Amino acid sequence: MNATAGLPIVAVDLAKSSFQLAVADGDWRVSEQRRLTRTQMERWFANRAVGLVVMEACGSAHHWGAGSKIAHHGKPGRTHTV
User: Fold this and answer.
1) How far apart are the first and last CA of the chain?
2) What are the tens digits of pLDDT across the range 26-50?
3) Model confidence over 49-67: pLDDT tens digits?
4) How many structural domains does the chain have?
5) Are 17 and 37 in contact (CB under 8 A)?
6) How far apart are CA 78 and CA 36, in angstroms?
7) Is residue 2 part of a domain?
8) What's this model's pTM, rounded to 2 decimal places?
9) Spatial CA neighbour of 74 closest among 60, 53, 55
10) How is residue 8 annotated by DSSP?
11) Residue-wise over 14-26: b if at least 16 C-beta within 10 A, else e?
12) Computed over its alpha carbons, how large is the radius of gyration of the chain?
C-alpha cells in the first residue's frame, strides 16, 4: 500500500518573496489555491499532511527541497512534466 495514498498533492510556484500553492487530490483536481509569504509557507507545510510536493527545478527549489520542512515530501522532476 502506498503511504501517501489519499494525501493531497501540492504544486509550488517559487519566487523571491511570495509563493503560489495549488493543492490537488489524487486525480490532480485543484481544490485550493493560496499565495503565501516564506513564513506562511513554512507554517502551512508544518501543519498539514502532504503526499507529494511538485516544484520547478531552479536554484531556490534546491533550498526548499533539501533544507526545509517540506524536504521529505518533494520529488525531483523536469519543469515540462509538471
Assistant:
1) 25
2) 888 999 999 999 889 889 988 888 8
3) 888 888 776 655 555 555 5
4) 1
5) yes
6) 24
7) no
8) 0.67
9) 53
10) P
11) beeeebebbbbee
12) 12
